[in-house]
Amino acid sequence: GGGMGGPKLAEMPIRLVARIIDGVLVGVVFFVVYFVLLASLAASTAPTYDPNTGVYNAGSAGMSFFLIFVLEILVYGVLTFGYEVTMIALRGATVGKQLMGVMVVLESNGQIPGWTPSIKRWLVPWAGSLVCGIGELVVYVSPFFDNGKRFQGWHDKFAETLVISTK
C-alpha cells in the first residue's frame, strides 16, 4: 500500500482519534440506554413493603447483579454491532473514520467490506472486550505491532481488511 500507486494506508494517530470519536459516540448512547434499562430493572427487583398487609418482599438483589452483568454485555454488544458492522458494511467507515478521513476496505480489491468481513472485523475486539475490556484495547493497539507494515490489527487480519486514508 501507499508508495506504488496503491491506496495510502491510514496513519495510526488518525486511526486512534477516529476510534476515540467512535468510542465517545457509542459510549454516550450506551450509558443512556444502559442506565434507563438499569433503572427499570432496579425498580422491578427492589424490596417492597405493603403497609396494608404487612408483607415485606426482600426483592431479588442477587439475581439483579447477574441480570445487570448480562444486560451490560447485551447492550454493549448490540450497540457496537449495530454501529460498527452496519457503518463498515455499508459505507466502509464509521462517523469517527469519516471525520478523520479514513475508511476500511477489503485488502483483495479495495472495495467496501460488506457484511461478512464487517462482522468478522467487529467480532475480534468484541470478544476481547469480554476480558474486562483489556482484550479490546490490545486488539486496537495491535496494528502498531504489524510486521507486514500494513498497520493491520488482528481484527483487520481476520477480516482481510485495510484502513486507508481518503484524504
Identify the notable features of this structure and list them briefly.
10% strand, 167 residues, elongated
How would you describe this protein?
The chain starts with 11 loop residues before the first helix and ends with a strand. By secondary structure, it is mostly helical. The protein is 60% helix and 10% strand. A hairpin with a 4-residue loop joins β1 and β2. The protein contains six helices and four strands. The mean pLDDT is 86. It has a two-stranded antiparallel sheet. Strands 3-4 form a two-stranded antiparallel sheet.
Give the arrangement of secondary structure elements.
Blueprint: H1 12-45, E1 48-50, E2 55-57, H2 61-91, H3 95-100, E3 102-106, H4 115-129, H5 134-141, H6 154-159, E4 161-165
Helix pairs in contact: 1-2, 2-4, 4-5
Our estimate of the beta-strand percent is: 5-15%
Strand order of the largest sheet: 1-2
Q: What is the averaged pLDDT score?
A: 86
Rg (C-alpha, Å): 21 Å
Q: Whole-Å distance between the termini? A: 15 Å
Tell me the major beta sheet.
2 strands, antiparallel
Helix count from the secondary structure assignment: 6
Which bin fits the share of residues in helices?
55-70%
- Structural class of the helices, strands and pairings? mainly alpha
N to C succession of SSEs? HEEHHEHHHE
Low-confidence spans: pLDDT under 50, at least 5 residues?
Answer: none
Q: In total, how many beta strands? A: 4
Overall geometry:
elongated
Summary?
The chain has 167 residues and is mainly α. The protein has helices at residues 12-45, 61-91, 95-100, 115-129, 134-141, 154-159; strands spanning 48-50, 55-57, 102-106, 161-165. The model has no long low-confidence stretch (mean pLDDT 86).
